[in-house]
Amino acid sequence: MDRSVTVAFVCLLLSVSVKDTTAQADPGENCATDSDCQRSATCINNKCICKPEYKLDTQLNKCRAGLGQRCKDTNECYIHDHPNRVECNRFNKTCTCTRGFVASADSLYCNGDAGIIAQLTSGVILLAMFVITRIIY
Question: Is 0.85 topped by the overall pTM?
Answer without folding.
Answer: no
